[in-house]
Design a protein that fits this description.
Oligomer: single chain
Helix content: 40-55%
Strand order of the largest sheet: 3-4-2-5
Distance between the termini: 39 Å
Strand content: 5-15%
Order of helices and strands: HEHEHEEHEHHHEHHHHEEEEEE
CATH class of the largest domain: Mainly Alpha
Number of helices: 11
Structural class: alpha+beta
Low-confidence stretches: 360-390, 392-411, 414-482
CATH architecture of the largest domain: Up-down Bundle
Number of domains: 3
């Protein structure tokens, strides 16, 4: 990635632009008016609404719990009837009292789709204004129910609990990511990126279904509301899958970074090794949820479209552009963990535990400038030490570091004229992990670094098939196989 700043800024601005319409999100429930006109249920609804306007099968019901014969209740019911009579949305009210005379039911027809925007707004106004003005006393309890009121309560419940669910999931994810990768930056960045993806998906839902931008291209109807359960469902599915992709990508990057110490190389390796897998897995889920989007019911259309477009954005633009650009820009700061959090348990992800074990065994070597007369290759696994090797990385100054295992990548031979210096251990008796691959006459002179004598003085063998090394030397100061 040659221009990470440009990539980061452009992708972030694009996702924020897609997320802007979420500010106008209106949750609710789809009624019969959202059904296709070819369905019999929709045709019957249209005929009934034309022939009997204001007479629907789902009226508003007002329950008055109190003495039905009391003057306060009687006068309150009359005031309520007069107020509703001035509103064209409501029809004529019907009054019914139970045998005990302590409960009154007022049934009021509502015009149009009982789950439509006009009906929902009318019932909300009935609850907040008409009923309190007509029955202000505290001696009676007044409850407004019916299909419209039920839809309102369901939507309000979802809206009230959504921020709490978000806070719980994000908080728990922050803790787990911090422990798994031992980095505050990784955890904060993962949560921010996933929230950006979710917000963009919400914005596209509102833009297509509520605002009607491009809905005809997909064959979707324009509706007044987004299904109340869709935002929560979309967050759960998208956050779970995108976090799975994120951990998969990040574990490969971290693994490579711990091997080489090169942040740019780690990003390239992580994207190259996981890009196809992540994209392929996401495309399978996109295809599945696209099938839901091709249905007739608008709630499934919203669910399928939301999940499909969100995963498509997340697995391509976010995981392959935004996240790598951010990791490359931050560099070593990606793995920042303050000292007061060092007590956190070190829970390794996938191959990190094996790498840590090899480091503890002392197989990691450091190259320093000097002169030797042979090329050396780390061994210590069940593979040959004479395989061709890439160049080792250049660390600080003139220091070069071998990869810590033959199994992860083929280590590079030393150049003629270099020496090696073991990082650990310090005794010749425990030098394990290097096999001579070439021989040359060492130059004269002395050095404080470790030297190997020329091959003619050494009778040597390095057996790596069993994971152990043995040596036979006549006059060598150190074993030929470390």
């Amino acid at each position: 990635m040659k221009r990470p700043v440009v990539s980061l800024v452009l992708v972030t601005l694009a996702l924020l632009g897609l997320a802007v319409p979420v500010l106008a999100l209106r949750s609710g429930e789809a009624g019969v008016g959202t059904l296709p006109d070819r369905l019999a249920a929709k045709q019957g609804y249209l005929v009934l609404n034309d022939a009997f306007p204001g007479e629907t099968t789902e009226p508003v019901e007002i329950v008055i719990d109190g003495d039905a014969a009391s003057p306060a209740v009687q006068s309150g019911i009359e005031r309520l009837k007069r107020q509703l009579a001035r509103d064209d949305l409501f029809g004529a009210a019907e009054l019914e009292t139970n045998r005990a005379g302590d409960l009154t039911l007022l049934t009021i027809p509502i015009e149009g789709d009982p789950l439509g925007k006009d009906a929902v707004d009318g019932v909300r106004e009935l609850r907040s204004e008409h009923v309190p003005r007509a029955l202000p006393g505290g001696d009676v309890d007044v409850l407004v129910t019916g299909d419209t009121a039920e839809s309102i309560d369901e939507s309000d419940t979802m809206s009230r609990w959504l921020p709490r669910v978000l806070a719980f999931v994000l908080g728990l994810s922050f803790v787990l990511l911090t422990i798994a990768f031992r980095s505050l930056v990784v955890a904060v960045k993962a949560i921010a990126v996933n929230l950006l993806s979710v917000a963009a998906a919400y914005g596209l839902l509102v833009l297509v279904f509520q605002e009607g931008v491009g809905n005809e291209l997909f064959g979707f109807p324009q509706v007044d509301t987004i299904e109340s359960w869709v935002p929560l469902f979309l967050f759960a599915v998208l956050f779970g899958l995108s976090m799975d992709y994120h951990v998969f990508l990040l574990s490969r990057i971290r693994e490579r970074y711990r091997q080489t110490g090169d942040n740019s190389d780690a990003v390239v390796h992580g994207v190259a090794s996981t890009g196809r897998i992540i994209t392929g897995a996401a495309l399978i889920i996109v295809a599945v949820f696209s099938g839901f989007a091709r249905g007739d019911l608008v709630m499934f259309q919203q669910m399928g479209f939301g999940v499909a477009v969100a995963l498509l954005l997340d697995a391509t633009v976010v995981r392959l552009v935004l996240v790598p650009a951010a990791i490359k820009l931050l560099g070593e700061r990606n793995w920042y963990l303050p000292s007061w959090l060092r007590w956190l348990p070190d829970i390794h992800v996938e191959g990190a535990r094996a790498e840590a074990a090899r480091d503890a065994a002392g197989t990691r070597l450091e190259r320093v400038p000097a002169k030797i007369g042979r090329s050396l290759t780390p061994c210590g696994s069940a593979r040959s030490c004479d395989a061709p090797s890439p160049r080792p990385r250049q660390a600080s100054g003139s220091t070069r570091v071998f990869p810590s295992s033959c199994t992860r990548s083929t280590p590079a031979p030393l150049d003629i004229g270099d020496t090696i210096s073991p990082v650990r251990p310090r005794t010749a008796a425990s030098f394990v992990g290097l096999c001579p691959t070439t021989s040359a006459r060492p130059p004269s002179g002395s050095s404080s670094s470790t030297r190997l004598s020329a091959a003619p003085r050494i009778a040597e063998s390095c057996s790596t098939s069993s994971g152990s090394a043995e040596r036979r030397a006549s006059s060598s100061p150190l074993p030929a196989c470390w």
